[in-house]
Amino acid sequence: MPTPLPEAPLAASKTTFRRYECKYAIDEAQAAAVRQAIGPYVEPDPHARKRPDGCYDIQSAYLDSPNLRLYQETRDGNVNRLKLRVREYPGSGADAPVFAEIKRRYDRLVLKSRARMSRPMAVDMLAGVTDKIPGLSQDEQACHDEFVGWLLKWQARPVVWVGYTREAYVGIYQEDLRITFDRRLRCAPAESLERPEETDWREMEPCRVVLELKFDASYPDWMQQLVARHELRQESFSKYAKAVERGLDHWRLPSGFVFGSDG
To answer: Kind and range of the H or E element at 149?
Structure first.
């Protein structure tokens, strides 16, 4: 069984990507204006191209310690923090893989690693089965092993589901550039990786669109002009934190989670 990793600013495992992210909460009128402005520079991402409306759904089960350590680090505005989640794409088929993901943030710099696996394998991983998963790349196996290390260190388990509908674009001239519009943000309680019933979901941001501008090294001039022209105001917007806060207001967190306790 992997030894739990020590806390450190950078993990040893390689990442799927590293990039900067800027978030803005906007309304539909602003979203339409931004979409028109970015037209010459982007095209729908490969997943969006497969859908008639150019959008697809994302659902993630977020994990945390019994004292909600990861939520508290986000709430307190810690510059260096991470999240653990298991992500899936509804509508991709019953046998579609899920992804164990580690997302780190260092101010605006985001590093994300992920490991692809079947849902039963993910359930086993959360239950403490740590066998190597056939077919994983070296980077994916490193992510899996580190994910298990954090689970053991923090006794982490699912807290909430977060779901939304994504409209996504990638750069035509800059491959690392990505722009997303997330709508219908919703959340549901989680005690396992079992999908929530439709009636369990609750809206989080019914009247707002979360716009994210993502780039690797350089902040494109046209993107800076876009932000200035449309008077976009960057803000910290954690879907996970908002889901926890919605849960605290509208349902009891899963048994064993004690918000604000030491540990």
So the answer is: helix 138-154
Nearest to 137 by CA among 117, 118, 112: 117
pLDDT < 50 positions in the chain:
1-14, 255, 259-263
In the chain, count H helices and then E strands.
Answer: 7, 10
Q: Whole-model pTM? A: 0.87
pLDDT of residue 251: 61
The residue whose two tokens read 């092993």 is 145
The DSSP string of 224-261 is HHHHHHTT-------HHHHHHHHHHHHSPPPTT--TT-
Q: Which domains does the chain have, with CATH numbers?
A: 17-250 (3.20.100.30)
Phi and psi, residue 221, nearest 5° = -60, -45
105, 80 in Cβ contact below 8 A? yes
